[in-house]
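Q: I'm writing up a methods section and want to include an example of the input and output format. Could you take the sequence below and give the corresponding predicted C-alpha cells, formatted cleanly so I can copy it straight into the document?
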Amino acid sequence: MSALTEISRHRCFGGEVGFYRHASTEIGGDMRFSVFVPEGATGKKVPALLYLAGLTCTEETFIVKAGAQQHAAKAGYILVASDTSPRDRRYPGDDSSWDFGLGAGFYLDATAEPWREGYRMGSYVARELPALIEAHFPVDPARWGIFGHSMGGHGALVAALRNPDKFHSVSAFAPIVAPSSCPWGEKAFSNYLGPDHKAWAQWDATALIGEGRRLPPILIDQGLKDQFLERELHPHLFEAACAKAGQELTLRRHEGYDHGYYFIQTFVGDHIAHHKAILG
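A: Here is the clean output for your methods example:
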C-alpha cells in the first residue's frame, strides 16, 4: 500500500477537505485525489462515496464546485474525488485534444498501445483507490457508493456494474450511458481499446445491462438544456435497456438545466440522500 503525501487541508462544514498525492501501481506514476471527512468520523467506520468527474476535470473540480460537503456532513459520509486520467506519465498525442488523453481517461483499462501501460483508470477507481482510502481514512469497506458526471457518470455506472461486491449504490449526472454509440465514446474506445466492439461492450453501461449485469436502484438526473444531450448522452438508450431488463431506474429530466456544475449543485443533495437510503 503506497504512502500518501498531503498537499493541503482545509476546514469545511465542521469537517476537513484534504488533497493528496500517491504513487499508483495501476497507473505507474503519481495520482491525485481529494477527500472530505465529516466531523465526528474519527474512531468509527463511516460510508464513503466515490465521485468520478467528467472530461477536462481534476480531483479539485467536484470538491470545489459541487457544494456537496454540506450534504455529506449532515449524512456523516466521506466523499472521495479522483483525478480523471494519468498525468505523471506522458504519451505522444495525449494533449492534442480536450476529449482524449489528459483529463479524459474514460475510467477503463486500455488494451491498445501505448495507452495500456498507464491508462488503467478502471482498475484504479474500482480497486486501488478504494483500498488506499480504506487504509488511511475511517471508511466502512462494506458501504461504498459511487457517482459521477458525464464521462464520470459513465465511469460510475460501469464501475458499479463490473464491481457489485465493492459499490453498493450508484447514481449519475448527465452520464454518457452508451459510449459505443456516441462520438466521445467511439473516439476514446477505438484509441484505448482498439477496433473490437466486443471489448467496447465491457465498458458500456447500456451493453452491460443488456448482457445481464444488475445494480441496486439507479438515480440519474439529466438536464434538457444540456448541449451534449442529443449527440453524446442518449439517456433513452439506457432507459430502454433497463426497462427491458427489469433494472430499477429513476431517470429525472429537468427543463432548463445544462451540463454544468450549477445543475450538479442543484441536485447533489438528492444524490447523497439516494445513497444514504441504500447504504444507511
